[in-house]
Amino acid sequence: FPVTILIGSNFTQNVGYSILENLSIDVTASYINLDNVPKGKQTGISDPVVKAKYRILDGSYRLDVLGEFVLPTANNIKRSNGDTNNSSGGSSYFAGFQVGNKFENWQWSFLSQYDYNNKATNEDRAANSKVKVDAYNSYFFQLDGLYKFDESMFGRAFVSSTIADEREDNSQTSYPSTTTNQLGAEIQRLITRDVLVRVGLDYSIVTGK
After folding, report:
1. How many C-beta neighbours within 10 Å does residue 122 have?
2. How high is the pLDDT of residue 74?
3. pLDDT tens for residues 178-204?
4. How many angstroms separate the CA atoms of 116 and 136, rounded?
5. pLDDT at residue 1, as a whole number
6. DSSP assignments along 161-185, one per residue
7. Closest Cα to residue 152, out of 198, 120, 118?
8. How far apart (Å, rounded) are the C-alpha atoms in residues 197 and 39?
C-alpha cells in the first residue's frame, strides 16, 4: 500500500460552557500546517465546530448523547501551487452517542456518529473553477483506549472507520462511496491545565467502489 507521511503541526482551541450539570456546549477550532499532503501542503484555520453533549449515565459506565454543527467559513480551496486550505466548503450536522467505562488508570470509549454533509463548494484556483458537491451521508465509528502513566502523562490508542456515501457535483463528476479505516497511537503530555501536547502516529487505508 502507498504510505504518506504527514509532518507538521496542529493547534486546537476549545471553549466550553456547562449549562446544566449534565448538559454542556463547546466550540472548537484548529490551525494546521501539514507537509506532504498529496501534491502539496494543507494549512489554515478550520471551520468552527459547535458541539452539545448530554450525559445520560454517569456511574461506572458513562453514556453521552452528542450533537454537532460545523459552521462553514470558506470554500474548500486548492491553490495554484497545489496547496489546500483547512475548510470543508459547506456545513455539516452530526448526531450520535458515546459509551465508555473508566477504571483507576485507564478508560475506554466507543463513539457512533451519523453525519449529514450539506452541499459544499470546491474551488480550484489553478483551473479558475468552482463546483458544487451534492449533500451526502457519512457514518463514523471509533473505539478509544486511554492509559494514565501519571498525573501529566497519558497514552492513547484508537481504531476508527468512516463510511461516506456516493455523491456528484454540478459538473456531473462522480465521487464514489469510500470507507476509511484508521489506526493510531499517541503520547499526551499535560504541560499546564490548559495546554496538552500530543505526539503520535496514524495509519489509514481508504477503499472505494
Report:
1. 19
2. 92
3. 999 999 999 999 998 888 888 888 888
4. 6
5. 46
6. EEEE--EEBTT--EE--EEEEEEEE
7. 198
8. 28
Beta strands 76-78 and 120-124, pairing class: parallel
Beta strands in 71-166 (DSSP E): 76-78, 92-102, 106-117, 120-124, 129-133, 136-148, 153-164
d(CA 74, CA 46): 9
**Whether the predicted pLDDT of 39 surpasses 70:** no
C-alpha distances (whole Å) from 90 to each of 51, 72, 112, 168 are: 17, 5, 22, 15
pLDDT digits (tens, 9 = 90+) for 87-117: 999 999 999 999 999 998 999 999 999 999 9
From the list 61, 123, 40, 64, the residue with the least C-alpha distance to 89 is: 123
Rounded CA-CA distance 93/118 in Å is 8
CA distance 132 to 170: 6
C-alpha cell at 30: 484548529
Q: State the DSSP H helix or E strand holding residue 125, giving kind and residue range, or none if neither.
A: none
Closest CA to 137 of 169, 103, 185, 178: 178
